[in-house]
Specification:
Shape of chain A: elongated
Oligomer: homodimer
Strand content of chain A: 5-15%
CATH architecture of the largest domain in chain A: 3-Layer(aba) Sandwich
Strand order of the largest sheet of chain A: 8-7-6-9-10-11-12
Radius of gyration of chain A: 27 Å
CATH topology of the largest domain in chain A: Rossmann fold
Largest sheet of chain A: 7 strands, parallel
Helix content of chain A: 25-40%
Number of helices of chain A: 12
Number of domains of chain A: 2
Distance between the termini of chain A: 77 Å
CATH class of the largest domain in chain A: Alpha Beta
Largest interface: A-B, 54 and 54 residues
Structural class of chain A: alpha/beta
Number of strands of chain A: 12
Order of helices and strands of chain A: HEHEHEHEHEHHEHEEHEHEHEEH
Chain lengths: ~350, ~350
Amino acid sequence: MLISELRNVMKPVKAGLWLLLFLSLCCFALFAQTRKILVETDSDELVKDLQSASSQVRVVAVTKANAMAEIADADAFVGSITPAEVRAGKKLKWVQIMSAGAEGVLFKSGGNDLRDSQIVLTNNKIVQGIEIADHAFAMLLMLSRDLYTFYDNKQHELWQPPRPFPGIELNGRTALVIGVGGIGMQIATRAWAFGMNVVGVDPEDKPFSPFLKKVVKPDQLDEVLPEADVIFVSAPHTPKSNKMVGAREFELMKKDAYFIAVSRGGLYDMSGLVKALDSKRLAGAGVDVTDPEPLPKGHPLWKFPNVVITPHVAGRSDKDRARMVGTIKENIQRFVDGKPLVNVVDKQKGY
Amino acid sequence: MLISELRNVMKPVKAGLWLLLFLSLCCFALFAQTRKILVETDSDELVKDLQSASSQVRVVAVTKANAMAEIADADAFVGSITPAEVRAGKKLKWVQIMSAGAEGVLFKSGGNDLRDSQIVLTNNKIVQGIEIADHAFAMLLMLSRDLYTFYDNKQHELWQPPRPFPGIELNGRTALVIGVGGIGMQIATRAWAFGMNVVGVDPEDKPFSPFLKKVVKPDQLDEVLPEADVIFVSAPHTPKSNKMVGAREFELMKKDAYFIAVSRGGLYDMSGLVKALDSKRLAGAGVDVTDPEPLPKGHPLWKFPNVVITPHVAGRSDKDRARMVGTIKENIQRFVDGKPLVNVVDKQKGY
């Protein structure tokens, strides 16, 4: 009777223990699957949006001030991660940056921690090619059609055709597109439609395209530079592309060429550009990116009438946020499903 | 002997008479072939250039002051001919206008003399499509990329991203091209390359083109107008197209559409445009053509920041003169050779 009584007493205890074990396993499974993703943002809307990508992640908004306190057990980081954060993030498996350019976290961060780690880096490449190419042509056409003169005249309600009209047509001219990626291909397509001959410069082998007459490697830049009527800079900023359009390259440019920079200011030499404009060799320049940014007050570039300066907004539009958030959400889903991420950066190449 | 002496005397006389007859015939032939072409210009260079087209023409430069004195025996007239000049030019077989738009000599001249005559009218259609389409996009992109704000900031050396950035991307939006001719097709090609869906409006049956999603007749304008994000006006000015974009059409436009006019100011209603801008229905407008021209000081259109105004220069470029003179020279050669001229205007249609 003692044993049977004991059995009777133990039955509910055993059942309870099984239940406890089951619940513990459930909790563990849930805990194991719930990834902690830090997002560097002050936008509640963005956090909510990213959280909606998966119930298996916990999205935690951080700032530079509290990121270190949250990073030890984080599985992923969305934003401009620092080397110190990489070192403190022992569990980090994935870093997603908001921009296309990865030089900030790879080459200009002051450390190679991310570059030499096993952490997968993804970016927002291609996402912004459309509006950046629109912007590149906006700057070029403002110059080639002399719109700044008419804008000045408008302030005085002056309807006055300049004689001779200094504007040129793009048809039949040559466009050099340095960097034939997400931005460069969009520029090439537009340039083609304006009747331009498009020459690309890119380290990668590019497939044939009706919009590109030819693509040469960066070591052939010297050969194609003197042919170009418009030089577009749309390459990523890497140790190899740093200042690739230097003082010498500006001197190689054709007289009356236009220079348009829309990817990163680090790709060209600011003094070389100023010198080329000063000596009236260039017909004009449009720069959305400079080095440094902001372009300081008093910089000589401000003073040229034939220079369009915009404050790194080429990638802004009414639709870019949706595409950017879409890419990050896609990657969050892929991250929890253990699938390969999209827009993976080659951390050694830097793009 | 008398007869034979007479024969001897007559021989040289007869030979002389034959020579005289021959020379007279030569002179007559030469005179008959040399056509007198009046050219309304003050440019010696243009006269020299056109004269070089054929030795069988005599190019005579005239102004409005002395054209009547020269026109009675003129075979052709290059310039903006008046009804009085048409009536005085009894021998006129051909009139070539410098512009593409023929409304000045056909509908706005105050007389139907040229329209109802047997005189062949040729124009410079197609010649200026390239640079006008460049200009149309220059105006549109200056607005869609908010370049006027940055131009203002530049005067203060202010590198300041506007938040939120008001610029939009053209990709995926709808362009309505009113008039799918020499200008309109160039606009359509560019719009396509920017990722736009292009809808044309034209009275003619147009061949299929990869750049045009569809082309509708002018009586279907009401149906397609509310779909358009950008409305380009690139049609010729005729009695049928006069004010075809009227107050009602501006009201049919989508909120935040852009209106771009590059052919003739007579095609749209200025007060309708001002009203649409005043009520903030349009996102902006770019007008190279107005009615009247010049746009008078004090006109309300001057005051909108989101309006680009250029003084009828869309057709100007570094290459348009060569194409225009080329077309006229081609026609001079064809005129003396009795071949059909190029760019013949349907004088009843007006284009």
